[in-house]
Amino acid sequence: MKKFFTLFAMMVLLAASSQAQTKFYLVGEAPFGNGWDPSNGLEMTELNDQGLPCVRGTINGTIYFVLADNLAAAGDWTTFNNEYRIGPTGGNEEVTVGAWISTQKAGGDNGAYKFTGTGSEYVLTYNPYIKKFRIDGYVAPIVIDTYTVAGAPAAIFGTEWDPSISDNDMTKQADGTYAITKYNCQLAADELQFKVVGNRDWGFAWPDQNYVVTVDEPGLYDVTFTFNPETKEVNAITEKSGSFDPRTGEVYILGEVNGNGWDPSNGLQMDTEDGNIFTANITTAGENPDENDGIGYSFFSFTSKLSESSEDWASIAGYRFGALEDGFPLTDDMMGVEFGLGSFGHPNSFKIPAGEYDITLNLDAMTMLINKIDTPEPPVGGPKIEKVWELTDLSSLYLTGVRQGFGMNGKFYINDTQWNGEGEPTILVFGEEGLAATMPGAANTPITRDEAGNIIVTTNVTFPATDWAAAEAGIKVINPETGEAKEYAIPEGCGIAGRCDMFGFAQGNLMEDGALFLTGGTNTGISILAIEGGEVSEDNSYLATCDGITPTTSTVINYYKDLNGDDALLYVTRNAAPQKLAADGDNFTATAIALPGKAPSNGVFPFIWDGKEYFLYPYKTAEEANYLDGFAVAEAGAEEPLVVVPSTVSAAANGYQANWLNAEVKDNVVTIYQYYPGGHMTVYKLTNGSGGVEELFTDANKVVADIRYYNIMGQEMKEANGLTIVVTTYTDGSHSAVKIIK
Prior knowledge:
The protein is built from five helices and 58 strands. The protein is mainly beta. The protein folds into five domains: 125 residues, Sandwich (Immunoglobulin-like); 96 residues, Immunoglobulin-like (Sandwich), CATH 2.60.40; 122 residues, Immunoglobulin-like, CATH 2.60.40; 304 residues, Neuraminidase (6 Propeller), CATH 2.120.10; 49 residues, no CATH class. The strands form twelve sheets. Strands 1, 2, 3, 4, 5, 6, 7, 8, 9 and 10 form a ten-stranded mixed β-sheet that branches. Strands 18, 19, 22, 23, 24, 25 and 27 form a seven-stranded mixed β-sheet that branches. A five-stranded antiparallel β-sheet has the order 20-21-28-29-26, with no helix packed on it. A hairpin with a 6-residue loop joins strand 45 and strand 46. The protein is flat, with a radius of gyration of 37 Å.
């Protein structure tokens, strides 16, 4: 009752006040006035939906104005200011959008209201009953004059769920409703779903839930979509216009299997003898890490027809099929169990961990059977790898700021942006006994070295600097033996863009002549910083192009000499296959490198050893979580690693997916440095004991009658090659068998 009485009293007051005062004016600068003339104010004749006087207009810049309840004679500012002016006292008052401003009779004062607009339309509303006004952005009434059908599949709508396609605009009918007909639509079940969208704006879409069109049997249909803008009723009428059978006698697997990607013109063809039962063997790499369980997954579905173009998904929409729901997980308990598939026209994908699998489809029953093939563990034996020393207490390091490090000459070099979370940026040098030395570091995380052993860090940027170009970033090159340092600015011509958290090994001696190859998170290519004669070479510092790469903030580019002695770059981005870059004029071409069991962490490193080109890289088994500390050594394209060091942790020790590895080769011994942020620094030695076979494995007290070589499949070879089983037969009839790596 109290609320009603208050409202009633206000209405009485409004009525009484409106009889006493019916006109109000704005005097000042347009659009809130006709100029500074006390006899020529802008009368507020427009009333809003609450019956309050208002004025609207576009303002771009600053204007001054006052309100008034009457006008004076021309030039009679004294009467106007003393009797009619409604404005601030004590000088000008600034007005902001959306705030009620209290007013009072100026009483002879000549202050004004000040408002600054940004080119938009504004409305000033005055409430004389509470003697306040406010300025708001004007919102015009919404008029919907276009209705568009948006939905799936793309074969019907051109692009799925895209209201911007004018070919899907509905036409107004004589009764005020809207309609559009799509002819000869390939429909197999209930794959046709849609909404009606007003003014191409998803804020105006009907019905609330997708309208689903169902048909009794696959075929070609004319579909008429209707919409009533008054009642918001949506409808679809289907009329069969022809036959359509999505079963073509062929089935292809689309998606991330056997090294393929999502391409409607390229799928793995399954084997069949009768056009009903289809089989295939697939391998998945787990390209997509899941943050919840730390496992990498691949996605795939099926189609009975391929398109002619890698961009044309529309023409095969009715031929595609897959899971009952998108992203359906194929877990261990699904292995060996026959289960149902979705109908044609439903391209829902399956989600599967990395591994090797056999798949069988039965199209008559629309079922699928999948079995996982156990992958054997990497072979035991061959070259010997042993741990030399390890540091596990890294508690003094600021984990967020020690994102990168490397090993050199028996020591680790780590740049800590805030030593222990509170100190100055410091380069920490660790030896077998722990912290051995320090030197001034950098406020950003990258640290690396060049071929001469100089340390390289950043200047002018503080982690996480998001725009290196704007910050005028540079590098500092430090001789760790003498402490001599040089600083270089990264020139604009390098095209560095965005944020850069990591560096790769540099070419040459950056104190004199060399080059650093790097990328920012929004780079369009590879930035080359060239040093000649101890100065930045503007001519040779530039942005090189390379097709097939997508730089990120954590991309690392290592310079090295490959097996042929040619200059090469190893381009590494976490969660992606590394790529070897070769010079192509001033630019580069990329070749992907396949490494068995490669984990998605950062840290791949190349080296030449024993006459072969090897890669040191983070490794995981199919069952392990991502971002652990296991690593391996392998040649590009090898079926199995040469050596594997298993993970020692069960959960990631850092949140930036780093497992840094690098190697030094001397006297045919490989020193491997592993810096696993948040976990440990460890040094390993890799040696090769496989010299001449006869020399190592024959018995001096026996006479050799025959030596034969076999691979791990039991197939005889002419000579030892890779992992080899050497079978020696002696004249006394005895045998010996030994595994070697050659």
